[in-house]
Amino acid sequence: MNDRQSPAAPFTELVNLASRLLGAGVVATNEDTFADAENLLVAKPAEFRAHTFGHKGQIMDGWESKRRRGVSAEQPHPTDEDHDWAIVRLGVAGRIHGVIVDTAHFTGNYPETGAVQAASIPGHPSVEELADAQWTDLVPRTALRGNTAHEFAVTDPTRYTHVRLVIWPDGGVARLRVHGEVLPDPRDLEGLSFDLAAQEYGGVAEAASDRYFSSPHNLNAPGRATVMGEGWETRRRRDKANDWVQIALAGGGEVLAAEVDTTHFVANAPGWADLVGYDASHGGDPATDAEGWFELLPRTRLQPDTRHRLRLSAGRAVTHVRINVYPDGGLARLRLTGRLTEAGRAALALRWFNALPAVEAAQALAEAGLSGGEAITLAAARPLATPAELTAAVAALQPADGPDGTETSRRAAAVWRLLGV
């Protein structure tokens, strides 16, 4: 579970790492004669239109492979191990908390069993490199039912970049969803200003006062909303309170500017909005510590169907931001441009480092300047909960330090370059 997410929240409340909006794609499949594997990632629920036939049969909104056959008239049936597969590049790498394998509308043609595997393959691997990768079972081979959204919780703490859906012996799956915690490579964000609230960097809309018409997760989704339904909209209030959404940022940082976007909300935009921040880096809980919140943007008049670009005064670091709207209504997007603090960058880097596969962690340490043996030893000491634990693990590396402390200093400097702690 995302350590910034409410313990009671289901994994479906986390970001879909296999979203095309985030850049996900089907990069390889062994078979999709009946229906394209790319349909697995379509954002909207699968549809079925009876008696819509193409040259290959009923047109299905999903991935469907052809019927497998045996090797001869004497052996007409497929073997127990015959299977089909599709590999998905996640839009953003992260720790997977749950997957959904949805066989919607596949009733007489769904797979008998299925599995979901994952791999971490840095860079931009070829199909051949994907085939040679080490794949780990997230969901072991299990029985599937027709016309069913199968939800599988995942406890593997590793950061992955790709998943592979495997079905036995053949058949169709409508949709694949991969929900989890985004874990960007901190080296890619070094020194940059970016949208600290964005899903693609790890921002999570973790709480909201109301989600009657649409989800608060739309607020920090990629791109611009194309219709009102792609934003966040509340029901009409009949009391004197207000509505709000709370976002856990990608990391602790300083918010420099905000964009409050009411595009497409013409007759139902809020009248006003303000922003408040909270810094949980010292152990506070934004859900219970009402006194810990402080103003980032005073209550500001909003116009319908408008992108409001607002500069904020440089000031305190925040890990969470809450937008309050008065009294109710809808927003298309919220953008919070800023930069990570040193502490925020270090915390993000430590989460990333702890979740890397051992080989990748050791390679990253070696590239930062540790020897091969030191890198392997330090990678094996994970997980490291705090920068202090990391510092202690660095100091414990062998060989023993010399009288001038040069070995410890050299190793610490190498880790600092990588993790910023």
**Largest β-sheet summary:** 8 strands, antiparallel
The count of DSSP E runs of length 2 or more, i.e. the number of strands, is 22
**Unreliable stretches:** 1-9
CATH architecture classification name of the largest domain = Sandwich
CATH topology of the largest domain: Jelly Rolls
What percentage of the residues does DSSP assign to strands (E)?
25-35%
The string of secondary-structure elements, in order, is EEEEEEEHEEEEEHEEEEEEEEEEHHHHH
Characterize the overall form: flat
Mean pLDDT figure: 92
Radius of gyration: 24 Å
**How many alpha or pi helices?**
7
Give the class from helix and strand content and strand pairing. Answer: alpha+beta
Overall CATH class of the largest domain: Mainly Beta
What's the N-to-C terminus distance?
Answer: 24 Å
The CATH homologous superfamily name of the largest domain equals Galactose-binding domain-like
- The portion of residues assigned to helices is 10-25%
| Number of structural units classed as domains | 3
Domain Allantoicase: 23-182, 202-339
Pathway: Nitrogen metabolism; (S)-allantoin degradation; (S)-ureidoglycolate from allantoate (aminidohydrolase route): step 1/1
InterPro entries: Allantoicase, Allantoicase_dom, Galactose-bd-like_sf
Keywords: Hydrolase, Purine metabolism
